[in-house]
C-alpha cells in the first residue's frame, strides 16, 4: 500500500516569505528622514547618525540570515510497507538565499519510517543504503538504489556557488544511521615547519595538497598572528593544484610571528600554523646594535607627529644609549626613550620615518620605515559637510566669513610629558574664521607672571607644540594666542602648572623562568611577569647550551604572553634560558637563568597497535600477534591489553588483566566453531593508549592444513638508500612437515597489490638483505613459509618503508684499542634516555660475555673482543632498543677466515751503535715513515730525557729515524734507553741496554758504521743479467740466494749492516732491505724472468759481486714452489708456519748463568725449526742445547759469557710459509765486579 498526501497549490502565484520586499519598505520609510538628518547635521553629529543607521541595517541583515527557509507545504511523516516506493515532493525554494548547510540540516531531520512485516527482520538491512543526489544540471534528480524509497528535490539555481553533493544513508548497525559521502576534497599534505629567516631576505612558505582543490577551496587564506595577509607589492600569495604558497620579500622583524594557512573543507576549515623567526641582519658597524622595530606614527597634525617604537633585542657590544631618527635626522641629541615628538613638518606633505639604535660602537641598522603619512588638519572632517547625492561640499569656513581677528584657543594642557620635553595641546577657537590660523606659545614660571614667547622663530600651524628647554624641578604655565592676517587674539587661559616628568626607569625583570619538555627539538618556556607590569610591551627570550654561556636571541619581536615554545633546539642537548622585559624606557636586565633541561619529547600515551594476525588455532585456543604502535609516545611500551568479543555480541570483554610484555598472546577458553574479533591496547608510563582497529573475525577451528602457517613480526634493519635488511619470525604452525625455507615478495608503492618474488629458491634463514632498491621509493614486503606440501599463507603485509639513508647514519667501525684488543664501535645519530645499545650476532644470537664485552657511553657503544678466534666469525649487528631503524652491521669475516688487526709501528732497524774516528757515539733506530703528528718519548733509566748540548736527540718523522748523539761517553750515560713512539692510535716502544766498555769502543772505532756512497740501483746488461748495485763502506756479505713466496721470487743477500735506503724499481720488481739483508722481489714471475742475477757490493776499496743463475732446473723448481704456495691463499693464512708467542724483545742475564729461550710454534704441516745467533745457524753442541717439538722449541745456553751477547733468532717454515722472530740478549758482569755492565 502506498500513501501519498498532495495538496493542490498554485505554486506560480504563491506568496512566499518576501524578505526582499520587507527590506525595501523599511528603507523607503526611513529614507526621507535619513537624508533630512544629513542635510542638517555637521561633522561628528552627522557621522554618528550614519554609523547608527548602518549598524541597525547590518543587524537586520544578520537576523534575516539566521532565519530558516519557509516551507509553504511541510513534509509529513508516513508509514509504508517494506519493499514499497515512496516519493516525497515539495515546491521549489529560494535556496540561493540560504546556505547549503541549512539544506543539509533539513535533510538530516527528515525521518523515513519503514514498517517490517516480520518481527525478526532488521529495521535497516545491513547491505542496503539510500543515495540522494543533489544536482545543478537538471530539474529533478532521483536515484533509487535501495528499493525502499527514493527522494526528489528541486535543483539548485544554475548560479549557485555550491558544487554537486552526494549524500548516502547507510544502515550498518555499527555506525550511525545516516552518513554523508562527499566529493573528494583537498587536504593539506605537506606543511611548513617552524622557519628561520634573516632580516632583509625573502620568506617562502608552502603547503602541499593531497589532491586538487575543489572550486570552493580555491581561496586559501594566510594569516600572521591572526591578521589576514593580502596580496601586495611585498606579499605574493599563490594557489595551484599542487600547493599553496606565500612569499614575503624584504622581511622585517615586524614580520615575525605565528603564520597560519586555512583551507575550506566540507566540515569547516583545516588550519596549519608554525612560528617564523626573523634573525637580525649583520650589524652596520662592528659591535653595533640591532635595529628597533614597530615604529608607529601618532597624533598626525599639520606640522607635528608623535613617534613610538620598541627597542631591539640585541644591544651589540655595549648597551643601547639612545636613538636617532632617519633619513633627515629629526633629533640632534640622542633620545633615550622609545618615543619622540617631531615638529616643523610641512602641511600637506607625505612623510616616512625610521629609527636607528646607538651605542658606543656607533649607529645600528635602520628600522623598517613607517607607512607614508600625510600631514594635515585632523579636524578638517568636522568642518565639512558632503551631500553625496548632489555632490555638494559645504565647509564651516564658508559660513564664518564675518570673523576677522580670531578668538583665543582653549583647554591648554600637556598631552605628552617626558623627562626632557613637554608636548602642549590645545583646542582651536570656535568659530575659527575663514583665514588660516597660526599660534604663539608663551611660557612663564608658575607664580611669576613673566610671560615670554616659547616658540620664538618657529611657526606653529597645528594645536601641538613640543617644549624642550625646560629646567627639571621647576613648574611652568603656558598660554596660547591665535594669529591670522587680521591680528593676534588675546591669550588663552593659562594651563595648570606643568613640569618635566621623572626619568622613566627600565622595567623590572621577569622571574621564575621554567622550561618544560615539548618535542625532540622544542621546549615550552614559562615565566612570571614582574609586579610592575603596566608599561611592559612584551618580552625577549634568550637561550644557551648549559655551561657554555653562549647566549643567543630567540625572538626579535616582543612576546606579549608569559609562555612561548622555543623551536630549533638540538635533541639530547641541555639548555638554559633567560628573559628580558621590554618597555618604552628600554629593556630590563636579564632574569635569572632557568634550570637546565635536556631536549627530548614529552611523554604521551602510545598510538594504537595494528595488524592483528592469527598464528595458530587448536579449536579452543588462539595464538595472536600484532604490530607495535607506530609511536611509543616518548616512553617504551610497557605492556599490552587485549579485548575480545564474539561476532554475534556487540560488547567487548577483557582478555588479560596483567599487561602482556611480548607482542604475542594465547587466548584460551574459546568456543569451537565461533567467530571472534580482538583489539589491542598499548600502555606506557603515561597510560593506556587508544585501541587498535578490531581484527577480522577469526574462526575458532583446529588447523589441519598441510602447508605451514604465516610468518609474522616483519621488521626492518639497516634501511639505506639502496638496500635494507628484512627480518621475520618463523610460523608457529609448520603443517605436515618442517619448514624448509621462505619466499620473500616485494611491492613498490604503499597501495599497490602487484607482488614480485625476490628469491627463486626458498631461503633457509629468517632474514634477507634486499639489494637494488631505488632511492626515495616506498616498498612493502610479505613472506611465505615453505614445506614439503608447498607454500603456506603469506604474512601480513609489512608497513610501507622508504629507501633512504637517514641524516647522521653511521656504520660500525673496526679498530684496535690502546691495549691491542680488536673492537667494533657504533655511534647512534639520535639517543634517548630510555634507549639502549643492543649487540647481537647474525641478528639473533646474544653476544657471549666471555668472548667480548660491551661498553656504552652517551651515543657511542664499543664491543671489544677478548681473544678473537674463528669462533668469533660472523655478522655483528648493533641497534637502538627504542628505535630499531638506527642499526648497522659488520661482517667479521675475510674469505671465511678471521683477519686479526695489527695496529703498531713497524720497525725497520732496531737500536744500533755507531762510533766515529773522533770518538763520537751515535745510538739510532729506524721505523716506518711516521706522520707529522707522531710523538717521541725517550726514557733513560726510568726517567724521561730531552736534548742537551752533551746529548743531542734528533727525531726525523718522515724517515722514522731516532738518533741520540753523544760528544763523549761517560759513566752517567750507561743504562737502559727506551724510545716510546706514538702515531695516532699506533704505538710501539724499543729498548737498548747500553754500557761503556773501553776495549769494545776502541774496536768499534776501528770500523766505521754503514755509510752509503751510492744508493740501491739496478741495471740490465747486454747478456740480460739483472744487476742490483749499492756502494756501502765497511761491508761484508753472504751469497745471493732465492726464496719463494706466495707473491713471487725474493732474491736476497745477507749483509752485516742495515741499509736505510729503499728505492722502488717498477710495478713487478720491488727492492728492499733490513738489518741483515738486501733483496729484490719479483712479483708474479713468468718465463721472461729467467736469467743470471748479480748484486754488486762496494766496501770502500774494492767491488764485490754475488751471482745467482735463475734458469734451467733452478727456475723450474722455483716456479713450481711459487705456484704451489699461491694455489690456496686461504690455507696459507691459517696453516703457514708461525711463532705464536714466547720471545721478548730484550733479555738481560748475568754472566755465568744459563739462558733459556722457549717459543711456541704453529702450522700445518709441522714447521721446520732453526735457531740462529747473529744470523748464523746454531746446532745443539757444547754450551748450546736445542729441543724441538711439533708445537714448541727451546734453546738453552749454559754458562753465558760476554761473547754470548747479541741477536738470537728462531726461524720456522713449512710448505705454506715462514717466519722469523728476534730477541736481543745482553750479558752483564757479576755484582762484585766494578759495574753491572751489559754488553750488546
Structural class: mainly beta
Measured as a percent range, the helix fraction is under 10%
Q: Give average pLDDT, whole number.
A: 77
User: For the report, how would you describe the main beta sheet?
Assistant: 6 strands, mixed
The DSSP helix count reads: 7
Please give the CATH class of the domain at 810-903: Mainly Beta
SS elements, strand count: 87
User: Uncertain segments of ≥5 residues (pLDDT<50)?
Assistant: 1-20, 30-44, 90-181, 894-902, 996-1013, 1057-1067, 1233-1240
Radius of gyration: 49 Å
Instruction: Give the CATH topology of the domain at 810-903.
Output: Immunoglobulin-like
The CATH homologous superfamily of the domain at 810-903 is termed: Immunoglobulins
Going by CATH, the architecture of the domain at 810-903 would be Sandwich
**Spatial gap, N to C terminus:** 128 Å
Coarse shape: flat
Strand content: 35-45%
Give a written overview of the molecule.
By secondary structure, the protein is mainly beta. It is built from seven helices and 87 strands. Strands 79, 81, 82, 85, 86 and 87 form a six-stranded mixed sheet that branches. It has a five-stranded mixed sheet with strand order 5-12-11-7-8, with no helix packed on it. Helix 1 runs antiparallel to helix 2 (43-65). The longest helix has 23 residues, at 43-65. The radius of gyration is 49 Å and the shape is flat. The model is unreliable at 1-20, 30-44, 90-181, 894-902, 996-1013, 1057-1067 and 1233-1240 (pLDDT under 50). Pfam families: fn3, I-set. Keywords: Immunoglobulin domain, Membrane, Repeat, Transmembrane, Transmembrane helix. Residues 490-514 are annotated as: Disordered.
